[in-house]
Amino acid sequence: MDPITQLKKEMISACRVLSQQKLVEGFGHVSARIPDSELFLITPRVSLALVTRKELLTLNLKGEVVEGNQPAPFEAWLHTAIMKTKPRVNAITRIHARVANIFSVTDRKLEPVHNHGSFFSGGVPVFHPPDLISTPELGAAVAEILGEKPAVLLRGNGQVTVGGTIAEAVMMAIYLEEAAEILHGALQIGAPIPLTANESARRREEALPPVDLERAWKFFKNRAESS
Amino acid sequence: MDPITQLKKEMISACRVLSQQKLVEGFGHVSARIPDSELFLITPRVSLALVTRKELLTLNLKGEVVEGNQPAPFEAWLHTAIMKTKPRVNAITRIHARVANIFSVTDRKLEPVHNHGSFFSGGVPVFHPPDLISTPELGAAVAEILGEKPAVLLRGNGQVTVGGTIAEAVMMAIYLEEAAEILHGALQIGAPIPLTANESARRREEALPPVDLERAWKFFKNRAESS
Amino acid sequence: MDPITQLKKEMISACRVLSQQKLVEGFGHVSARIPDSELFLITPRVSLALVTRKELLTLNLKGEVVEGNQPAPFEAWLHTAIMKTKPRVNAITRIHARVANIFSVTDRKLEPVHNHGSFFSGGVPVFHPPDLISTPELGAAVAEILGEKPAVLLRGNGQVTVGGTIAEAVMMAIYLEEAAEILHGALQIGAPIPLTANESARRREEALPPVDLERAWKFFKNRAESS
Amino acid sequence: MDPITQLKKEMISACRVLSQQKLVEGFGHVSARIPDSELFLITPRVSLALVTRKELLTLNLKGEVVEGNQPAPFEAWLHTAIMKTKPRVNAITRIHARVANIFSVTDRKLEPVHNHGSFFSGGVPVFHPPDLISTPELGAAVAEILGEKPAVLLRGNGQVTVGGTIAEAVMMAIYLEEAAEILHGALQIGAPIPLTANESARRREEALPPVDLERAWKFFKNRAESS
Fold first, then answer.
1. Residue C182 vs residues B73, C103, C192, C204, C205: alpha-carbon distances, Å
2. What is the largest CA-CA distance in chain A?
3. Taking CB atoms and an 8 Å cutoff, what residues of chain A touch B225?
4. DSSP run (H or E) holding D91
5. Distance from CA of C3 to the nearest CA of D (A)
6. H/E element holding B204?
7. pLDDT tens-place string over residues C93-133
8. Measured between beta carbons, which residues in chain A are less than 8 angstroms from residue D107?
9. Rounded Cα gap, residues B156 and C112, in angstroms
């Protein structure tokens, strides 16, 4: 299988995993950089549960569709801004995780308290304007708030996660919601014990070696395919 | 397919979507105006998970069955009152969403904090008498409380949502429960940040253009059919 | 179909509905009086998800197995005590509903706040000793606490619901958990508004006419069969 | 079937039950002592939803793989430490139960309030360092904290449960999460009433006679197989 076909296949797997986990319901997008190019693939305005490999669009960093038969997503600017400014990011998910969304509409910071939350050490940044990211300026602003973190909350409007690979971006989405669920539950019964910066650093090293990332990714792909 | 058959097909889709989302369990009704007429279609006293196209009743605005072999629903007056007084409403759902119901039995107002909640700006009105809407007077009273809003909570007794199309009425039901879930979760962990009137207005415009409504409706119909 | 076979079939439906609703997981029992007799049918020590019609036991009011190849349940005394003292009760469920169980282990009374909760007006009684109901004395004590109510909570140990028919006993189990879920959710966000005694009485009349009970029962049986 | 094949089959059942209950998602391990030996079986670095009988590893008490084609799990030391010091333990689960995990990251003790929680009388001990158990020293430290209890929480990192049989270790995992869910729910609505030491002792005797353990195990195996 040629690399682009392989990448597209991986993107469709990502779409199905995010749907099966209910991290998207009807909306949301996934994008992935085409290696050694100024181009990236992105899902069109189609549910991630239903989108097919042939429908994937190829965009350049100006947000123009260079291949594909559908218009670019409203929020294409979010993806171009991140792809342009963050060379280590090769994949992006744009999701609507329920419990992470709850944190974004309160004054409560989403901080890690458990091992798979360690990627979010220091707390997940929040982009406060509740608008769709439909202009280059809004896209650049989100990319700046994201910084070098793996995720950003858009107030009342879902989340963005990024990774060096599609698998990593999707696992960040899954771990983000897991971190939110555990902190949400903890806040209801007592004083949560956050991971210290040191503990987070150590746990992060342990929790995402390539072998474990692959193991988790394989598990979630299998669950999505057999559901 | 003739327009009435098409409308009936859409109604059955609505019934299945509401069942699959557990917004109804055994009870509930869906109705839809027959265009350019004084008549509307309504589901009989049959679970929305099980009702068939042939069982749909045709009622006039006096609540009389003009076509169909079953008695009108107990709450037919709810539907006639809304159909009579709100010409822009062409479809109604009568549901029992769990978390929205929780708000109706407390002193807490259901106000939007997230983008898909923006339709409910200013808060969802509550009809306080806990009775079934089984008289013309009760029907008229609910229609008045509903006003120009897309939804009304019936205390301890479910909800009513309306729309210009069946798809819109169903999506209002789904977004109502989503708005309730997110506010419920937010209230447990901190101070919720409501959308301002301005933010709501802007988000409402963005969140329900016809293309997005169709995308969401297609997603939920597909989920219901494949479940 | 002869009446006993019909009754056994209905019992197996009840077992499957309670399993599908997760009101039992591995444990629990259902019993039903044989009309015009001093005998009743009861499930043996077998999961309600798995028990078959042929395995059902026939017991007399002394708790003796008069037909069937398995020993009586540990808690047979619970069923004999209720069957003996409450002639209007023809069916019993012994379940472990999660949220209702939560109320039983706190100082908080489970009182109805919504229409389908109206059957539990005045609050659901609690039997405080956490023991299995494995003696005639414990059985009699539970029957006394139950009184003329449709349900009783056994502290930390599940619940008992009763009805004039199998369908009614099962619907009481489903409505009990629904009432618990709604009150539990309400307590987390504000001051719950209980139904007054008058409101409950009126709602109870409206909410369980035979036509509606049949409609709900048909819905849940269909869901269990198709799951 | 020879005893080792039988044991391996039971282990795979345990893996599937834990997956189906979502007590593991991608990660986690199960181990079981080979009777009358210094050896035990353990799952390799493969999701418990996917692992096959042929992939099971045989380890000695020094953590060396004596049979099998994959490397030992990172946390093999956890299993060797417990197997070495606790002769009555013949099976171990290493899980990531969601609600039990929530307790581990707060100052709130997980104490039993309901009958199936009675096994955890006195509260579930917590191992505070958030590290993976990847050295003999950490393994020994967890084994010491576990003591004679059936479960230990690893702060923010899941749990360990043990039993005299595979079925018992798995049921302890299921009852641990059940105990956590009920206490979590109780803490949200009022003052939980813990089981006294006496009540726990009595309930423990009643709740896990071999016949009931078998009944529950059979139920969960059936659910996992038919899901």
1. 25, 12, 10, 17, 21
2. 53
3. none
4. strand D91-95
5. 30
6. helix B197-207
7. 999 999 999 999 999 999 999 999 999 999 999 999 988 89
8. 190-191, 193
9. 9
